[in-house]
TrEMBL record:
PANTHER family: SULFITE OXIDASE, MITOCHONDRIAL, SULFITE REDUCTASE. It comes from Desulfatitalea alkaliphila. This is Sulfite oxidase. Residues 44-208 form the Oxidoreductase molybdopterin-binding domain. InterPro entries: Ig_E-set, MoCF_OxRdtse_dimer, Mopterin_OxRdtase_euk, OxRdtase_Mopterin-bd_dom, OxRdtase_Mopterin-bd_sf.
Length: 355
């Protein structure tokens, strides 16, 4: 039976992927999470009329047609994309924003061109330090603030794409058709949709969506004093069983996904006793640099009762996922093991649980 998206707001559309749909290495376009600050365009723009402008700190401002982009060398990259506030509602202390659980994340195979190849056509100037992206979407609200974000020039030139395909199909309208910026291994806030303009700057772009939100700060601090949200945090999520599920005794297959942005995943360990003991999980499925690792652990349990299951990831550099999340006003980057633990009930009697 097809699972429905959990809609948090309809205008703008914000909805998370149902947990069963996170058990696949590829997250289907139809259930890929939706995160928007503006209104989704009502119709697809004509590809014949669409242009991508590149200006600012460049030697040669240019406009590029969609046909020109299609004729450039193609890149195909798998990438895990996550909302900056994913897991916000799991924090013990309330934080502002949409109440994401674990469904504000997904993994897709994107097709497009390297951003470097596009920027080189405009000949970036020596003062260039940042790259700002502007989409076709129209702001909601009377203030009329456009969603414009910038990333460092180094990130733009090293591991960022402009994508026009998602999971082998043209980029869906709600995910940025016809073109979306994609900073590999970084949160969705850095990946502007419905792209129409790129501006090279000698400093970070100054505006509401750079200075007032997508910053990690504490109560009493000015938002602009906090660090900008960039790379994905090291995290492991449990996708099977579901929280508070009742299960029969016997072998229980625990499934999950782990991701670490630019640093990848080296290992995942599982505990079924609240963190007292840990055992290694087994990786399943493909292994790609910016994509999550799907994992499984078969737990042989014969004793009825309540259990608390945890998963803890280790990245490619040997750093472990923290046991507790770092709280901040807007609840960004919740990657605590404790916050992502789930409780289950084993409903059959028996002598003991083997772990």
């Amino acid at each position: 039976m097809e699972k429905k998206m959990r809609i948090m707001t309809e205008r703008p559309l914000n909805a998370e992927t149902p947990i069963p749909s996170l058990r696949s290495w590829i997250t289907a376009n139809a259930v890929f999470f939706d995160r928007n600050q503006s209104e989704i365009p009502s119709d697809k723009i004509s590809l014949e009329e669409w242009r991508l402008g590149i200006d600012g700190e460049v030697e040669q401002p240019i406009e590029i047609t969609f046909d020109q982009i299609l004729r450039m060398p193609k890149a195909i990259v798998s990438n895990t994309l996550e909302c900056s506030g994913n897991g916000r509602s799991l924090l013990a202390e309330k934080a502002s924003g949409n109440p994401w659980t674990i469904g504000g994340v997904g993994n897709a195979v994107f097709g497009g061109v390297w951003l470097k190849d596009i920027l080189d056509m405009a000949q970036p100037g020596r003062k260039t330090k940042h790259v700002a992206f502007e989409g076709l979407d129209k702001p909601l609200g009377s203030a009329g603030v456009k969603f414009i974000r910038s990333i460092p020039f180094e990130k733009a030139m090293s591991s960022s794409l402009l994508v026009y395909e998602m999971n082998g199909e043209p980029l869906p309208l709600k995910h940025g058709y016809p073109l979306r910026a994609l900073a590999l291994g970084w949160t969705g806030a850095n990946c502007v949709k419905w792209l129409q303009r790129i501006t090279l700057l000698d400093r970070p772009y100054e505006g509401f969506f750079m200075d007032k939100v997508y910053r990690v700060y504490q109560k009493g601090d000015a938002p602009e004093s906090g660090n900008v949200v960039t790379a994905l945090k090291l995290k492991s999520i449990i996708t099977q069983p579901l929280p508070d599920e009742t299960l029969p005794a016997g072998p229980v297959t625990i499934l999950g996904a782990a991701y670490g942005g630019e640093d990848g995943i080296g290992a995942v360990d599982v505990s079924v006793d609240g963190g007292r003991n840990w055992k290694p999980a087994e990786f399943i499925g493909p292994h790609e640099p910016f994509a999550w690792r799907q994992w499984q652990f078969v737990w042989h349990v014969v004793k009825e009762g309540a259990y608390r299951i945890m998963a803890r990831a280790t990245d490619g550099k040997g750093r472990q996922q923290p046991m507790n999340a770092f709280w901040n006003v807007l609840g960004y980057g919740n990657n605590g093991v404790q916050e992502h633990a789930i409780n289950v009930q084993i409903g059959s009697s028996g002598a003991s649980a083997a772990f």
